[in-house]
């Protein structure tokens, strides 16, 4: 049963999401927050599996709250694709009036994004998807956001890049291209378990909290593999 923290500054939306999740079998609402600061406090107190995070809120917005909640977690890379044991997954709520805000939320570590008028059955399926550790968008959609908003980094390399082994850099480049662990395993002739271990080590060394964040960083630092 995934536990969910609902974060939105609009009472009607927040209460509606809570009512839907409470009535649905297999979901548990552990709290509601009306702004980013409250979300950070409740996330630490309740340790939810999934956080439904609004982006635009007064005070601390959803992007800053996502950074605070996900930043610095040593276990952030655990089970990125195959397990729900790696800490909370953030699913950002958007009206799609600002794709740039969505991109920055993904860069902060969010696992995906969801339109606020999504039908109830799709909302529940989306929560289950990110709870399972999967990204909630296609690689093509993510690459579109990256191509539009990501700027190649012109400063010093990411401090963790030098710690990656040649094999880890190879795996990370394919993660950056949007490939799943199974697809990476097929390309590199490795077992999925071995790929998962490499991904975990890459994420830990680079202090990344979601696979989407890894894709963004790989593109910004020119490490994403080019797929033909």
- Shape, please? globular
Poorly predicted sequence stretches spanning 5 or more consecutive residues: 72-85
User: How confident is the prediction overall: mean pLDDT?
Assistant: 84
Q: Cα-atom Rg, whole angstroms?
A: 17 Å
Beta-strand level of the residues, as a percent range?
5-15%
Helix run count: 10
Instruction: Summarize the biggest pleated sheet.
Output: 5 strands, parallel
Helix-strand sequence: EHEHEHEHEHHHHHH
Distance N terminus to C terminus? 40 Å
- Name the structural class: alpha/beta
β-strand number:
5
How would you write the strand order of the largest sheet? Answer: 2-1-3-4-5
Structure description:
This protein is α/β, with parallel strands linked by helices and 228 residues long. The chain is 47% helix and 11% strand. The chain has a 5-stranded parallel β-sheet with strand order 2-1-3-4-5, sandwiched between helices. Helix 4 (99-107) links the parallel strand 4 and strand 5. Helix 2 (36-46) runs parallel beside helix 3, helix 7 (166-176) crosses helix 10 (211-220) and helix 8 packs across helix 9.
């Amino acid at each position: 049963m995934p536990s969910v923290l609902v974060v939105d500054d609009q009472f009607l939306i927040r209460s509606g999401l809570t009512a839907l999740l409470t009535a649905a079998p297999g979901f548990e609402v552990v709290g509601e927050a009306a702004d980013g600061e409250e979300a950070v406090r409740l996330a630490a107190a309740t340790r939810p599996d999934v956080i439904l995070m609004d982006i635009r809120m007064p005070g601390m917005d959803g992007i800053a709250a996502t950074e605070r909640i996900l930043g610095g977690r040593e276990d952030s890379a655990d089970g990125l694709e195959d397990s729900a044991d790696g800490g909370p997954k953030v699913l950002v709520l958007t009206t799609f009036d600002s794709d740039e805000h969505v991109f920055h939320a993904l860069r902060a570590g969010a696992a995906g994004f969801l339109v606020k008028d999504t039908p109830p059955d799709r909302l529940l399926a989306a929560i289950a998807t990110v709870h399972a550790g999967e990204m909630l968008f296609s690689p093509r959609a993510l690459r579109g956001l990256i191509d539009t908003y990501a700027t190649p980094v012109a400063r010093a390399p990411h401090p963790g890049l030098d710690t990656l082994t040649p094999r880890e850099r190879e795996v990370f480049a394919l993660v950056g291209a949007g490939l799943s662990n199974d697809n990476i395993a097929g390309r590199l002739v490795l077992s999925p378990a071995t790929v998962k271990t490499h991904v975990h080590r890459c994420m830990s060394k680079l202090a990344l909290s979601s696979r989407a964040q890894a894709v963004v960083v790989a593109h910004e630092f020119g490490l994403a593999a080019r797929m033909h």
